[in-house]
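Hey, sorry to bother you again with one of my protein questions. I've been staring at a protein lately and its backbone has me curious. I owe you a coffee for this, so here goes:
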Amino acid sequence: MPIVRILLVVLALASPLSMAGGAVAGPLEDAQAAHGKRDYATALRLWRPLADKGNAEAQYALGFMYAGGQGVPKNNTEAAKWWRLAADQGNTFAQYNLGTLYDEGKGVPQNKAEALKLYHLAAERGNDGAQFSVGVLYFAGVAVPENRTEAAKWFRRAADQGHIGGQVYLALSYATGLGVPQDNVQAYMWLSVAAARGDKDAISNRNRVAQKLTPDQIADAQKLARDWKSKPER
């Protein structure tokens, strides 16, 4: 099995409960609480009028519920409608999730260029999932000329925030010298960080990298992994 693997860009939705920077008094907070209790009827009743009035967080939340079929029939077209409204107001969760719909052609015609545009908007403002997705498209040369250096830059931003996919892809970039100078110590370190967070493939890939390292180099990489701390951008 080659050390480089292809990761599918999948729809990774953030919960509406995590979208706000802090508690918001009133119907929005009540809707979030109801959603957390899986009282979807109440959440919809509270969110919909807010969304109709232009509240971006409520619009994002409605899109989330339509995408997941929570209290309503699953409908990616309706999800895309609400996420577009929220995305146009700068909601990074909506930008990222709408990007995944365009990436996969769900609820909207497949359009990788539009997906990249939306990912970029969210990535620049610190959305780690979007940063990883931008990296994947540059890595594969989809909707943009292949650029492994640019890909590694975005993988690093996502990895620094704790995104497992970003950590694995950055590690594999170091292992293969694609977009960064080849460095098996860095590869081992990032695979160790991802492995500690439950990525099983990271363990097997780390074992392959270990065969190319001396015991001292492994010890150095292990220390780097132990000392690593997430650096959220937002």
In short: The chain has twelve helices and no strands. The longest helix spans residues 40-52. Confidence is low (pLDDT under 50) at residues 1-12, 20-24. Residues 189 and 223 are 8 Å apart (CA to CA).
